[in-house]
Structures are given as structure tokens and as C-alpha cells.
Amino acid sequence: MRIVVLAGGIGGARFLRGLKAAAPDADITVIGNTGDDIHLFGLKVCPDLDTVMYTLGGGINEEQGWGRTDETFQVKSELAAYGVGPEWFGLGDRDFATHIVRTQMLGAGYPLSAVTEALCDRWQPGVRLIPMTDDRVETHVAVEVDGEQKAIHFQEYWVRLRASVDALAVVPVGAEQAKPAPGVLEAIATADVVLFPPSNPVVSIGTILAVPGIREAIAEAGVPVVGLSPIVGDAPVRGMADKVLAAVGVEAGAAAVAEHYGSGLLDGWLVDTVDAGAVERVESAGIRCRAVPLIMTDPEEGTAAAAMAREALALAEEVRA
Ligand code: FO1
């Protein structure tokens, strides 16, 4: 079975670990969000690609869900000693090697998709990880600080400000001009099922869908498209998805997110058991809906994520019938 998964950061990566356990013989292609990418110290950092690669490759810092395990921060403190910031983004020594190799290969002319493939040679994530595009896309967030409106990089909003101020707008800068990376449209066209894991519907999955051609390819693939709600009980399971959902006028609810994606895209939607009351509203939007446990209580073992993945695949078969 060929499965295509649109993935963002932590929630997507943990779901993928469960999907691999639930469908060990499946051929899984992950289309990774690159809107989180940030250039720091002359290096290109790809947080969502690295979170998938490290999580599935066994190098992730499990508590954080980002960065490497057994990390040290000598380089970061030496940079700070030179007064070179930003200090609010925690790049570790081991992680720096990934960004150095990536930036070196990009500088030699390799596209991000080839670089990602090369980095995955080391990590062997057990899935094919393709960036949504090889072109530069960076999500910026419009905020009002001290009475002044300005656009800041997503990472500054997310990490430095901790999404403590309202996001007035979320803009994937460069998305309109971006082209799907090699292999993305082919993977969607040959998929047996497409999954939207519980990643952020605006800044992760929304950004991937903003690359011209990707949303259309999924809508026209003619195979089941099934998503899992990142919102449980009207609150995001993790992160601050409600902040960016508000920016696009979507309430932080399991049903509202399904409606946001729309029945033109989604065939099935899983909500958590606490949101069983939302099933009827989702079904009336023309999207098949089931209420199942969606909290990945045991990220390490991944058995909860495997159960969620099995439910998603089962719903896909139900939709296909
Ligand atoms: N998230 C944080 O909350 N604090 C950090 O200091 C931080 C550093 C960091 C370094 C490399 C990397 O790949 C990711 C990092 N993240 C950090 C996570 C990052 O903000 C992700 O983009 C979000 O978690 C959304 O996916």
C-alpha cells in the first residue's frame, strides 16, 4: 500500500512513528512542511523536516519533540559570547552539523529535496521524506506589538513570543511562486491513501496546501483522504494551533478544522472521543467521521499513535467502499 502523509512538526512525526508500526509493509511518502524554515548564522534550518527525520531515525530529543537527544550548546554559547544572536532559538551542537551539511550542499547547487534525501541516508527514517517544495517559502506572522503592526518570522512568533500575542495574519511568503518538489505530485498521483496527521492545520498542513498544485493533486487523486484532528476538546493537543487558527478565522474545534479543510479535500476525519458530539456536524459537512482516542499518551512506544493510524486506515477503507 502506498501512503502519502502531509506532515509538519511534532504531532506529525509522532503520528508517523505509529503509522510505520501500524502498516509495516506500506510504502510511506512524507511531504514535509518547509514554511518553518529559518536562516540563522548563515545556515538553513528546516525544523519540520528535521523533526520527522530525527523522530523516525531515532535521534530526536523526545521530551521536546525537536532537536537532538544528548545535546550540548557550546557553539550557541560561544556565539552569544560574540554577541551574535538570536539567543531565543536553541540550536544544539549536534543539530548544527545537520544545518552545516544542508547549507553546504545547497551552496553546491543541490536542491533541498536532494539534500533531504542525503541527510536521510544517515538517519534511515523508513519513509521517503520530500520537502513540499525546493523553493524558498517562509511563514511570517503579522502581529501588533507596542501599537505597531509588523510581520515577524514564524519562529520568532512561536519560540520567542510563545504565540503570546494574537496572530493578525499568517502568510507563507513565497508560496504562490513555489513549485512542488520533484516526486511530490507523482507520490500523490500514485497514492492509495492520503493522510493529514494531527499537525497544525494552518502553519504546517495549510502551508503545504498553499504550494500551487498540491491541494488540487490531492483533491483529484481519487483516493481516500483522511485526517486526524489536532484539536481535542476545543484545545490544541500541543503547540498553540488555536492562535493561528484564529488568524484564519477558524474556531479551535475538531469539527471546525474539518470544515476548514472542506469536503472537497477530506473524505474522512477522526476526532477524539471527547469530541464525539462533533461527529454529526462533520458528517453533515459531507465528511465521514469517527470518534476514537487521539491522544498519543505514550510517544516513546507509539502504541497509541499506531492505534490512531489503524483507525485512520480503517476509515479510509470504509470511505473507499
Ligand atoms: N522550539 C522551541 O520552542 N524552542 C526552541 O528553542 C526551538 C529550537 C529549535 C531548533 C531546531 C529545530 O529544528 C526546531 C526548534 N524548535 C524550537 C521547534 C521549532 O520551533 C518548530 O518549528 C516548532 O516546534 C513547530 O514545528
From TrEMBL:
InterPro entries: CofD, CofD-like_dom_sf, FbiA/CofD. 7,8-didemethyl-8-hydroxy-5-deazariboflavin binds at residue 50. It catalyses: enolpyruvoyl-2-diphospho-5'-guanosine + 7,8-didemethyl-8-hydroxy-5-deazariboflavin = dehydro coenzyme F420-0 + GMP + H(+). Its cofactor is Mg(2+). The keyword Magnesium applies. SUPFAM superfamilies: CofD-like. Pathway: Cofactor biosynthesis; coenzyme F420 biosynthesis. Gene3D superfamilies: CofD-like domain, CofD-like domains. It comes from the Bacteria. Belongs to the CofD family. Catalyzes the transfer of the phosphoenolpyruvate moiety from enoylpyruvoyl-2-diphospho-5'-guanosine (EPPG) to 7,8-didemethyl-8-hydroxy-5-deazariboflavin (FO) with the formation of dehydro coenzyme F420-0 and GMP. Homodimer. This is Phosphoenolpyruvate transferase.
